[in-house]
Amino acid sequence: MWPFSAILALALLVVCDARNKVILTNDDGWAVAQIRAEYTALKAAGFDVILSAPAENESGTGSSTATPTTLTIPCEFNTCATGSPAEGSDATDPRINYVNSFPVDAVRFGIQTLAPKFFHGAKPDFVISGTNIGNNLGSVVNISGTVGAASEAALEGIPSIAFSGATGSQVSFTTLNQTTASSTQSAHIYTALVLKFTHALLNNRGAILPAGISLNVNFASISNCTSAASYKFVLTRLTADSDAIDVRTCGTNHLPAEATEISEGCIATVSVFNASNKADVNAATQGVVLHKLTSLLSCP
């Protein structure tokens, strides 16, 4: 689990940075173990967080959108009943919300409806989408609901990050007490990486990210990576392009493709993409992100 001392240290850093209002979403559904582990850890680390995610698993729905409707079947893992309203919340925590529609609609509900309510009229500072169960690499970003939600946030003017991890299972948050289960271990390792990355990004002056762009961050399998400390973050691009001139770093102006780099071990790839077309950005925009994450990024 995320050590208490580390959570306390991060909480002190978050208190010092007023940009702590976050919408947490995904495409796997509001009740999976991964998103609930992140929700708990973000709160413990001092973030002002609202969870707004689909009522059901909506993986692979990209940037689809539709008006939310009354539940005709129960929410995933029977966490709400048939006939429940189109949007609803946990019985004991009103900041944990479902939306019976696509990831884009869930994050939109979080930004436009829940944020003004819980953030006293203020907009969220940023959106965390995921960590998705399964990687979203290369052209897969075009059908990923996790990336779709992050893109929607960026297009609404809210900085966003799409996180995805190779390990994990579509299991209920109630399984998190099974501490030796692979799904629980990956939930905690990936949550620790999300916190580490988010702090590094926020520990900068000025805009969190350039307007209209988002980040696609993918974590390698935990099979040979036993803790968050095992991982190194590497700047990548979505797709390989030998003709592209990327930002110069690590002695080259050609960034590795994320699908190639993630196979190299305990790697977390970081690709900068345009939220409008889900494509790689130019070297100048990559450079802005590189500058903000210099303390975190390593060479391939």
Helices and strands in order, then pairings?
Elements: H1 4-16, E1 21-25, H2 33-44, E2 48-54, E3 87-89, E4 96-99, H3 103-118, E5 126-133, H4 145-155, E6 160-165, H5 182-202, E7 213-219, E8 232-236, H6 258-261, E9 267-274, H7 283-292, E10 297-298
Parallel strand pairs: 1-2, 1-5, 2-4, 5-6, 6-7, 8-9, 8-10
Antiparallel strand pairs: 3-4, 7-9
Helix pairs in contact: 2-5, 3-4
Summarize the structure.
The protein has 300 residues and is an alpha/beta fold. It has helices at 4-16, 33-44, 103-118, 145-155, 182-202, 258-261, 283-292; strands spanning 21-25, 48-54, 87-89, 96-99, 126-133, 160-165, 213-219, 232-236, 267-274, 297-298.
Description:
Helix 2 packs across helix 5 (182-202) and helix 3 crosses helix 4 (145-155). It is globular, with a radius of gyration of 18 Å. It has helices spanning 4-16, 33-44, 103-118, 145-155, 182-202, 258-261, 283-292; strands at 21-25, 48-54, 87-89, 96-99, 126-133, 160-165, 213-219, 232-236, 267-274, 297-298. It is an alpha/beta fold and 300 residues long. It has 7 helices and 10 strands.
Question: Overall 3D geometry?
Answer: globular
Structural class designation: alpha/beta
Amino-to-carboxy terminus distance: 28 Å
On the 0 to 100 scale, the average pLDDT is 94
Segments where pLDDT lies below 50 for 5+ residues?
Answer: 11-16
> How many β-strands, per DSSP?
10
Q: Percent helix among the residues?
A: 25-40%
Largest sheet: 10 strands, mixed
Tell me the strand order in the biggest sheet: 3-4-2-1-5-6-7-9-8-10
